[in-house]
Design a protein that fits this description.
Blueprint: H1 16-37, H2 42-69, H3 75-97, H4 104-131, H5 143-147
Length: about 150
């Protein structure tokens, strides 16, 4: 697989559970990029995009649940960012079903959106989460990581 989007320490929010979920999102973007680059067709791309959309929704649900449980003060604005991306992904899936191809321009948009969202949005909640009892790391694999394993 060609690396389109690479994980770096700059993207770490300092909470292993969330970082591992972000890595899965990056892996799915790389998989989608490869499908496009290698001309695997819209059916293969659509399948990967569906997995990406499903995992994104699950990830957002986890983040939003933690925000509510831990009383994150910027919950509403962060949730709106999530809803905006979900809408864009739904639109993208509809366009793909309508015969439109996924372009590299769109892939760059998704990569830039995720990078910006992690650095400008997700990193803001780290201190709040940790101060309210969230753990920075775990000793066992995450239930979500096991659930979504390939």
């Amino acid at each position: 697989m060609a690396v389109f989007f690479e994980w770096s320490d700059e993207l770490s929010v300092g909470i292993q559970e969330i970082d591992e979920q972000h890595k899965v999102l990056i892996d799915l973007l790389n998989e989608l990029h490869d499908a496009i680059r290698l001309h695997h067709g819209s059916e293969a791309s659509g399948h990967i995009l569906g997995r990406l959309a499903d995992y994104t929704r699950t990830h957002f649900t986890v983040e939003e649940s933690l925000m509510r449980i831990l009383g994150y003060p910027d919950y509403d604005a962060h949730k709106q960012h999530h809803e905006d991306l979900i809408k864009q992904m739904n639109d993208l899936q509809a366009r793909l079903l309508g015969g439109e191809a996924i372009t590299f321009e769109l892939m760059h948009f998704l990569r830039n959106w995720l990078t910006h969202h992690i650095i400008e949005g997700d990193k803001r909640y780290t201190e709040h989460f940790l101060s309210r009892g969230a753990q920075a790391s775990w000793h066992k694999k995450s239930w979500l990581e096991r659930f979504w394993a390939k």
